[in-house]
Specification:
Elements lengths: L5 H11 L6 H11 L2 H5 L3 H5 L6 H9 L4 H17 L2 E5 L7 H4 L7 E6 L8 E5 L6 H16 L3 E4 L5 H11 L4 E5 L12 H10 L1 E4 L11 H11 L3 E4 L7 H11 L3 E4 L10 H8 L4 E2 L3 H7 L1 H4 L16 H7 L7 E2 H8 L3 H13 L3 E4 L3 E4 L1
Parallel strand pairs: 3-4, 3-7, 4-5, 5-6, 7-8, 8-9
Antiparallel strand pairs: 1-2, 2-6, 10-12, 11-12
Length: about 375
């Protein structure tokens, strides 16, 4: 359930239905009136006092209430669609709204989603590229997305053919999470061959769209979608791209949003590598060949999730290692106490303690103290 009531959603949709009103002007109106309800019920003079609102636009806002019944019907139908598709509307006032996205210049006031948005998704990397990748691009998109997923990093992409699809699959098959930002309504799967992947993402990740149910994947929708892909991510990795197109547009958004840009280098003369090589040449992207290159650059920002998705191998202990390990309590234990309690000499204890340290089970502290990890 959204933080906004049904009536508040109607007010918001009513305001946005006014020609010339977008998220930016809504924010300016809210700065003065504090709620959408008060904007809708305000008089012409008060609305005209808001920066960026002309008298003509103010008149349209005052007249907007005439269409309330029509907007109520739209919201009612939308509630039915949300229930049908197990989806939800997330507004910028909801706790679930991604904090990174909220900080961009023009965040959507609301979007639709299928699946769960998790706290770990704040540590996301976008992977984007051409719809017609080479084998080289396919191999490295699969490898890099898998490496990121194993580190607990969420992979964001756009569910398009080519690099997007490979990146989503690479994350999922390695036990990771992925976010797909689409340029159509949540009920319109595009491309159609990604229906199975679409359903898997809704179960193991999250699908996000700024567009109402029934919206077709028109070309004009994708620039709007691309700013969300970059907005959700700490960094953007371009696998293969020409000099123009959606990937370079997403990079442009990312640069404006202060995101780190990374690019996989490609062979000179190959069309799919012209964009990535140009980004590296201009110094707008850092050259990467592995997930480690990305992690090193963003280590401080990614630290809370790094390695959280790596399955831990079972550790086998020898007889004396187990005996010594059991002598350690929840705090720090001195070597003399370990020796006394285990019945082993200090030198033997130190040998086995070193082995336990190599296995990542304990750590040595100053003063010959040892503690469990």
């Amino acid at each position: 359930m959204s933080a906004l009531s049904k009536e508040q959603l109607v007010d918001l949709r009513l305001l946005l239905s006014v020609e010339g009103i977008g998220p930016g002007r809504v924010r300016k109106l809210l700065a003065k009136f504090k709620s959408v309800e008060k904007v809708i019920s305000a008089d012409l003079v008060s609305i005209s006092e808001v920066e960026g609102i002309s008298e003509n636009l103010a008149k349209k806002i005052v007249r907007a209430s005439r269409n309330r019944t029509e907007i109520e019907d739209i919201v009612e139908k939308e509630q039915e669609d949300l229930e049908k598709y197990s989806a939800k509307i997330i507004t910028i006032w909801d706790k679930e709204y991604p904090p990174l996205l909220k900080k961009i210049y023009d965040p959507p006031l609301f979007f639709y989603k299928r699946g769960a948005i998790k706290a770990s998704d704040a540590y996301s990397i976008a992977m984007i590229g051409t719809r017609g990748p080479t084998n080289y691009g396919k191999v490295h998109a699969d490898r890099l997305s898998g490496e990121l997923a194993k580190e607990g990093i969420t992979v964001v992409s756009g569910l398009a053919r080519g690099i997007d699809t490979i990146s989503h699959i690479g994350a999922l098959k390695n036990g990771g999470r992925t976010i797909a930002v689409i340029g159509s309504g949540l009920d319109v799967v595009y491309p159609s061959e990604n229906r199975k992947l679409y359903e898997e993402i809704s179960e193991k990740g999250v699908l996000i769209s700024e567009f109402p149910f029934g919206t077709k994947p028109d070309a004009m929708n994708f620039p709007q979608r691309n700013r969300i892909i970059s907005g959700l991510s700490l960094g953007i990795v371009v696998i293969e791209s020409g000099k123009g197109g959606g990937s370079m547009q997403t990079v442009s958004y990312g640069l404006d949003q202060g995101r780190e840009i990374f690019a996989l280098p490609g062979n000179v003369g190959v069309r799919q590598s012209e964009g990535t090589n140009l980004l590296i040449q201009k110094g707008e992207a850092k050259l990467v060949t592995s997930a480690e290159d990305i992690i090193v650059e963003l280590e401080i920002k990614l630290k809370p999730v790094l390695g959280k998705n790596i399955p831990k191998e079972p550790v086998t202990l020898g007889l004396f290692e187990e005996k010594i390990y059991n002598c350690l309590d929840d705090g720090a234990t001195h070597i003399d106490s370990i020796s006394t309690n285990s019945g082993l000499s200090t030198s033997d204890c130190l040998v086995h303690l070193l082995s336990l340290e190599f296995k990542g089970l304990i750590k040595q502290l100053p003063g010959k103290m040892f503690a469990k990890l």
